[in-house]
Amino acid sequence: MNLSLEGKIAVVTGAAKGIGRSIAERLAESGAAVGIIDFDRATGAATQDEFTAKGYNCVFVAADVSSYESMLQARRQLIEAFGKIDILVINAGVSRKHSIAEIDAAEWERVISINLSGSFYTVKAFYDCFAKKTPADNGRIIFITSGSGITGTGGGAHYASSKSGQHGLMRTVSKELGKNGVSVNAIAPRVIVTDLFDTLYPTEESKEKLVSQIPIGRFGYPEDIANLACFLAAPESSYIHGQIILMDGGRTY
């Protein structure tokens, strides 16, 4: 299927690297102009330069999703650059693989503030862009959550709690904006090969044990998530709404 996003404006948080970067690039490849939001100024600027060199229309904005004021400023900058927003991908997040005994109050609050509050602040900052849309506009909001929000495993109690919270937020947003033709869904990956993969699974033995649990016999990659995000961003996905799509190669169920 040749998905076209020509004329669409997409915003992706946490888009300087990893899954967010892959999503931003896949959307740009399909014709969307892309706003790259990230806390990491150096990596974000480098990503913008690389995308621009490939001929993509993109703008990098440095912002902190855990600050509502920062997200409002990011929205102002992107509206000034593009005039509208059609697709919002809520991807920014952090993970700390600690037990409940190891998690102190500060760590709990940091993970919740970035993953859950940050998702709400992102929705809140861009909400008017979608509340003004009509079904003909094909507005899209896509949450990148985690299978941890379903299974309770991986990343620690704060991570699983924040991701489960994102699922509740996504469903509320889907109810509010459905009448405007804005499709709202969540992609819930489990283990994906990113920069953290070797830290979490440092030995060949640990990798082999993990892959043995995945029925299709391979790990997931950021491009897998990006391909689904691109489909959910396209008009062809308009009847998929309020869903949590688990991407784990069949590992969970």
Short descriptors:
single chain; 253 residues; alpha/beta; 7-stranded parallel beta sheet; globular
What would your notes on this structure say?
- This protein is α/β, with parallel strands linked by helices and 253 residues long.
- Helix content is 46%, strand content 14%.
- Strand 4, helix 4 and strand 5 form a beta-alpha-beta unit.
Question: Brief overview, please?
Answer:
The chain has helices at residues 18-29, 41-53, 68-82, 105-131, 148-151, 157-177, 197-200, 204-211, 222-233, and strands at 9-13, 33-38, 58-62, 87-90, 140-144, 183-189, 244-247. It is an alpha/beta fold and 253 residues long.
Helix and strand topology:
Layout: E1 9-13, H1 18-29, E2 33-38, H2 41-53, E3 58-62, H3 68-82, E4 87-90, H4 105-131, E5 140-144, H5 148-151, H6 157-177, E6 183-189, H7 197-200, H8 204-211, H9 222-233, E7 244-247
Parallel strand pairs: 1-2, 1-4, 2-3, 4-5, 5-6, 6-7
Helix pairs in contact: 1-9, 3-4, 4-6
Helix proportion of residues, in percent? 40-55%
What about the largest sheet? 7 strands, parallel
Mean pLDDT: 95
Taken in chain order, the helices and strands follow as: EHEHEHEHEHHEHHHE
Give the strand line-up of the largest sheet: 3-2-1-4-5-6-7
Q: Catalogue the unreliable spans.
A: none
Number of strands: 7
Task: Decide which structural class fits the backbone.
Answer: alpha/beta
Radius of gyration: 17 Å
The fraction of residues assigned to DSSP E strands is 5-15%
Overall spatial form: globular
For the record, give the distance between the C-alpha atoms at the N and C termini, rounded to a whole number. 27 Å
The total of helices stands at: 9
